[in-house]
Design brief:
Blueprint (H helix, E strand, L loop, with lengths): L2 H4 L3 H15 L2 H12 L2 E2 H8 L3 H13 L3 E6 L2 E6 L2 H32 L12
Antiparallel strand pairs: 1-3, 2-3
Helix pairs in contact: 4-5
Length: 129
């Protein structure tokens, strides 16, 4: 069997999934996607909101556009960016949902370990609860 035959079908989908996950795994790209989840924005607005230099934001937007996660459109003299559609929005939502669930699961597991071993949760030293 030649190598090309093993690269079809599900292997292409796996490679595509890896490419998207690798692309989204960049902290600034996630921040941009989260911001665009709330509202469309131009590079200047993103730069200000994220406190990142505009050239860095622009560079990351280019990667996101090439992956079809973000689209751009002209609004007068401004070039605005938005999530590219329902699939891009769903990807952002799914990542957030996964992380929230994972955080709750990790906290629950830590609490279960404390109960099993008889340890108490660390107390707060500032007197607040």
């Amino acid at each position: 069997m030649n190598a090309d035959a093993t690269r079809g079908g599900p292997y292409r989908e796996i490679e595509a999934a890896v490419d998207i996950l690798r692309l989204v795994a960049h902290p600034l790209r996630i921040r941009i996607l989260l911001h665009l989840r709330q509202a469309d924005a131009c590079v200047t607005d993103l730069s200000t909101a994220l406190q990142i230099p505009a050239p860095n934001v622009s560079h990351q937007l280019r990667h996101l556009r090439h992956a079809h996660l973000v689209r751009r459109y002209r609004d007068g003299s401004r070039m605005n960016y938005a999530l590219a559609g329902d699939r891009a929005t769903a990807l952002v939502d799914d990542v957030l949902r996964f992380c929230r669930h994972r955080g709750r699961t990790a906290a629950a597991a830590t609490n279960q370990d404390r109960v099993r071993t008889g340890d108490r949760a660390p107390s707060r030293r500032d007197g607040s609860s």
